Amino acid sequence: MNNQTVVIIGAGVAGLSSAWWLSELGWNVIVIEKNTDLRASGYMLGLSGPGYSAIEKMGMLEALQKHQYRYQVDKNEYFNTKGRKIFSLNIEKIWGSIKILMLSRTDLVNELYIKASEKKNIDIKFSCLVTSFENNADNAKVYLSDGSAITADLVIGADGVNSQVRKALFPTQDSKSREYLGYKVAAFATDEVAEQVKNFKSFSEPGRIVELYPVGKDKSAGLYLWKSSSNAVITSPSIKRAELTAQFSNSHPLIKRKISSLDDASPLFFDNLVMIDLPKWSQGRVVLIGDSAHCLTLLSGQGAGIAMISSYLLAKSLQRYGINQGLEDHEKRLRPVIVRLQERSRKLATWFIPASKLSFNLRNLVVRLMPNALIGWFFLRAIRSDIIAASLDEAS
Question: Where in this chain does the record put each FAD-binding domain (predicted)?
Answer without folding.
Answer: 5-319
